[in-house]
Amino acid sequence: MRQGVLLLPEHRWAVARERWLLAEELGYDHAWTYDHLMWRWLSEGPWFSAVPTLAAAAEATSRIGLGTLVASPNFRHPLDFAKELVSLDDVSGGRIVCGVGAGAEGFDSRLRGDREISRRERGARFEEFVGLLDRLLLEERTTFRGDWYAVQDAVVRPECLARPRVPLAVAAAGPRGMALTARYAEVWVTSGAPNLFDNEPYEQVVPLLKQQLAEVDRACEAAGRDPATLRRLLLSGGSVGGVLDSVESYRDASGVFADLGFTDLVVHWPRPDFPFAGREDVLTGFAAAELGGGTG
């Protein structure tokens, strides 16, 4: 089981840098941040951009994987984003993972005055976004015109250090997104029930997670892909609660999720208050006991 941590981009770099460095020192395999213009309950406070944050984290660290969890078409264009990804890939020495999702309704879809779109339109836009992003990162030159995006003789250079391209981690909870995952992704991402923050105890979410795992297996088989070639990442802390209640619960939850078939578990860095309120000593204690990490 690979272990990861998600750091909200809410702190000035003097503070944030120490946390990204500590995540690596503690022995975590990967560290992530959200990619939003503004976010839910924290819209009145500081909120930094994901790409510069990851570039700074890549320069500060040397080993840990880094990524977006997740970027979306709500304000990203595949061409612009592809250029940023190859830049991050270069700065990090090939450690970037591009997490993408369809994008929910919220600040990111309203701040720029874009028209509201239906769930079906959102799914169609996401399919086009992921397919074009994949082409831009793989092809020498790309020309494409679809319903949502168009590029003409687009060249994205240099080639990715990560081969054949920056890995894609696709967040998907329904059949359309899982089919997209099976076609393009190296990693499938779920947070349990999508876009919910009910924070149910992780033991109670197991039936839903089993169902989702079976569905993504079927999507791979339908696409002619071996399901074993797809990593499965669970982001806890939203609808999947209780993981960071104690070192013991963290250890137990990791075992439960590994037994279900997940390859990666990501927890939010504990905050002093809602959302993701918790104790940092649980994070560091688990790392010391299970990851061989420490604070020197």
Describe the structure.
An eight-stranded parallel barrel has the order 1-2-3-4-7-8-10-12, surrounded by six helices. The chain has helices at residues 13-25, 50-60, 78-92, 107-110, 119-138, 175-184, 202-222, 247-260, 280-291; strands spanning 2-6, 30-33, 65-71, 96-100, 142-145, 150-154, 168-171, 187-190, 200-201, 231-235, 240-241, 264-268. Helix 1 links the parallel strand 1 and strand 2 (30-33). With 296 residues, the chain is α/β, with parallel strands linked by helices. The chain starts with a strand and ends in a 5-residue tail after the last helix.
* Nearest-integer average pLDDT: 95
Counted beta strands: 12
What does the main sheet amount to?
A: 8 strands, parallel, barrel
Structural category = alpha/beta
Termini separation: 24 Å
> Percent of residues in helical segments?
40-55%
Q: What is the chain-wise order of helices and strands?
A: EHEHEHEHHEEEHEEHEEHEH
Structural shape? globular
Strand order of the largest sheet: 1-2-3-4-7-8-10-12
> What is the oligomeric state here?
single chain
Number of helices: 9
| Unreliable spans | none
Using the CA coordinates, give the radius of gyration: 18 Å
Strand percentage, roughly? 15-25%
